[in-house]
Design goal:
Layout (H helix, E strand, L loop, with lengths): L2 H6 L12 H9 L1 H12 L4 E2 L9 H14 L2 E6 L2 E6 L1 H7 L3 H13 L1
Antiparallel strand pairs: 1-3, 2-3
Helix pairs in contact: 2-4, 3-4
C-alpha cells in the first residue's frame, strides 16, 4: 500500500487550504486534545494511537483524535494495522505562521 493510500483509509483530513483558525482553536481548547498534541510534539517521529497517556475511554479517545484530525492539527495514517499520528506542522505554519509553537508554549506554561 502506498503512503497516500494509507492516508486515504482515513478520509476526513481537510486540505491545507481548508484549515481554519476557528477549528484549530476549538480543537486545542480541550485539555485531552491539548495533551495529545503536546505528546505528539514531544516525540521523534510519528506516534501510534495506543501509546498516548490519556485518561479517557477508548471510544472517547477516538472522538478526540477525530476532532484533531478534522481540525487539521494532526494527520493520521496506517502502518500495517497501527494507526499513526503526526502534527501537520508544515500545513499549519503555512496557514498560520507561528501559531502552533505559540499554542504549545502557552499550554506548557499553563499545564506545566
Amino acid at each position: 500500500m502506498t503512503a497516500q493510500a494509507a492516508v486515504d483509509r482515513i478520509g476526513d483530513h481537510p486540505d491545507a487550504a481548508d484549515i481554519t483558525l476557528q477549528r484549530i482553536l476549538e480543537a486545542f481548547a480541550d485539555p485531552v486534545r491539548r495533551s495529545i498534541v503536546r505528546q505528539i510534539a514531544r516525540t521523534e517521529g510519528d506516534t501510534a494511537c495506543g501509546t498516548f497517556d490519556i485518561s479517557v475511554t477508548r471510544s472517547t479517545g477516538t472522538h478526540h483524535f477525530r476532532v484533531l484530525r478534522q481540525s487539521g492539527l494532526i494527520r493520521q495514517y496506517y502502518v500495517g494495522t497501527s494507526k499513526r499520528n503526526a502534527l501537520r506542522r508544515d500545513d499549519l505554519e503555512q496557514a498560520f505562521p507561528g501559531l502552533l509553537d505559540a499554542l504549545l508554549a502557552a499550554a506548557d506554561r499553563e499545564d506545566g
